[in-house]
Amino acid sequence: MARAIIHPTIESIRSVRKSFDPSVSVGFVPTMGALHEGHLSLARAARSQNDVVIASIFVNPTQFGEGEDLDKYPRQLEKDVDLLTENGVDHVFAPSSGMMYGKNHTTYVDPKGFDQTKEGTSRPNHFRGVATIVTKLLNIVQPTNAYFGQKDAVQCVVIRRIVDDLDMDVNVQIMDTVREKDGLAMSSRNAYLTPEERDKAPIVYKALCAAREVFESRWARGMEELDANDLQEVVEKALETEPLITEVQYVAIDDLETMQPLSKVGNGGCIVSLACILGSVRLIDNIVLR
Fold this sequence. Notes:
By secondary structure, the chain is of the alpha/beta class. The chain contains ten helices and eleven strands. It has helices at 10-19, 37-49, 77-86, 97-100, 118-122, 126-141, 153-165, 195-200, 203-216, 228-240; strands spanning 5-7, 26-31, 52-57, 91-93, 145-149, 171-175, 226-227, 245-254, 264-265, 270-278, 281-289. The strands form three sheets. It has a six-stranded parallel β-sheet, sandwiched between helices. The chain has a three-stranded antiparallel β-sheet with strand order 8-10-11. A two-stranded antiparallel sheet has the order 7-9. A hairpin with a 2-residue loop joins strand 10 (270-278) and strand 11. Helix 6 (126-141) packs across helix 7 (153-165) and helix 9 packs antiparallel against helix 10. The model has no long low-confidence stretch (mean pLDDT 96).
């Protein structure tokens, strides 16, 4: 198996993209590196559905806030390229920050309303950074299909929104969250957990599952809809049972399409998402109820 070709410049990856016949389908998997099985499952999905697969590895500075982990975010390009090769990727776009954000860069994509979501409130300007880099990458790679993981719930809605609003010719494929055997959502930041913290981390998913149990049992209790506050309270109480959780940043009960908060949850379902600090590590997760 030939190793995936690394392209450090926009010119290089564009040249390859232009060489494909118009009938060739291109799958694209954007990542920040430090790859885990969640990323690799996206690569395999892209491989199974497209003629050519391109991945990107770029730690995007504009989506990190002050005091976040930009400087210590794991960077392991050669290992990641080997993993991507093993999972069917043909080309890897791995630009520098200077390549993606030149010295005169002033243009950003700012999706309105998402900074007012609970995730947006906890990470100001994060979604402007996400929307900008995804727009730039999609413009550069021009894929047929682009693959993202459900774990970053608001991000998925943001990406669908910008692709629709800006009339981009790409199919956005949202794939299910990949979990460890004990339920913990796979994340590059899990590597920051101490052994004790990692042992306790499944409480995050268990808390979400508690909300699912309440939602699914509503018919047995003769209820067509639930108060969103009841679901939120169930999740918060479950998280409170773990002393290593030092902060619950939010528990959100939101609309599946817009990520706007709900007061009632009925047959249309909802997405329950949360962010908490376990030890010193920020963990996010979500579950779709429908």
